[in-house]
Each structure stands twice: as C-alpha cells, then as structure tokens.
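agent> Task received from the user: take the single chain below, predict its 3D structure, and emit structure tokens. No templates, no multimer pairing.
agent> Plan: (1) validate residues, (2) run structure prediction, (3) serialize to tokens, (4) report one or two observations.
agent> Step 1 OK, no nonstandard residues flagged.
tool_call: predict_structure(input=
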Amino acid sequence: MDRMRSTAAASRSVLMAVVLGTTLAPGRADAHAPAVSPKAIEGLTRYCTACWRNARLPADRWDDCTQQVFTRLLERVSPERWATMLTADGEERKECLRAIDAVKKRTQRDRKYAGLTPDTADWRTDTADDLRDDRAAVSAAAEQVLSPRQRRIVELTAGGWGVPDIAAELGTTAERVSDEKYKAIRKLRSHLGVA
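)
tool_result: status=success, residues=195
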C-alpha cells in the first residue's frame, strides 16, 4: 500500500515538474528567461504537500493547491531564486510561505462554505430536541474532563467568540487560548468517543 502511494506521489511530482518545466523553460516566452530546475520544483512540491497534509486539506485538492502556489510564485519571485527559496531566509522565502498560507486559507474557506449536494444529509431535519440533547451531552462531558478555564473557552467559542476576543476576556494571549481550546476539544472527543 505504501509502495502504491509513493509511486503515485512520484508520478504526480514528475508530471508537475514536466508541466512547470515546460512553462518555465528558456525559449518558451523569452529566450533569456531563467529555467527552474526540476529539483527545485520537486522540493517545493514536497514542501507544499507536507503543508497540505498538516493543514488537513482534502488529499484530492493537494495538486490544485500546489499549482496555485506555483502560479503565485511565478508572479512574485524570480524563477532563478526558487532553488534556494526554502533553504535561505529572505524575502523570497517569506513570499513562498505567504503563498502557501493564502492558498491553504482559501481552500479551508471553500470547504467551509461548500453547498450541500443531494446525497448529503440535511442538518435542518434535526429536531430542536436532538440539538438540545447533544449540547447537554457535551456540557456534561465538559464538567467531567475539562478544567474551569477550558470549559470557559469552550463556552465562549460555542457562543461565537473568536480566539482574540476570548484572549482579551481571559487576560491571556491568543496562542494560549488556541492551545487550551485544542486540548479541550481533544479531551471532549476522547471522552465522547468521537473520531
């Protein structure tokens, strides 16, 4: 199974290198345009793939996301700088990270606002009683497994508060709130047996 995945990943990398190599090769649009080495493209592709995996983006979107990063980099970073973009600190590296972050956030927003398809269950058919029961179960679990601070963070989050607002309310940093929220959700999921 792992061998099949590595073969598929390698073939995607080669395909992307061929497509981008053709696009960026000298003589294409400008005879004096610098070429991007296939090694640089492969390295950037691997880095992007790791970013998409860590961001938990759907695997079927990874190639499209990587392509969007390359498109943005073509507009903003000189191709001869791509080989050192991930190894050297500088404006090129910052631009690469900005491109990856922008594509990641856009993809996450697209997932969040995707419409229902006919084969997707409609949540509006749930009754108010079911929703009340679910909230009661989460509240009871929170009482058992969360600290008072974590319970407060979960309550504020459920009330629609953003992380910076919660941090201001609790007199702490947004990073601390985000960390506590993550830990609280993991504890609740584990306690409730939710994957």
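agent> Step 4: summary for the user.
The chain is about 70% helix and 0% strand.
agent> Done.
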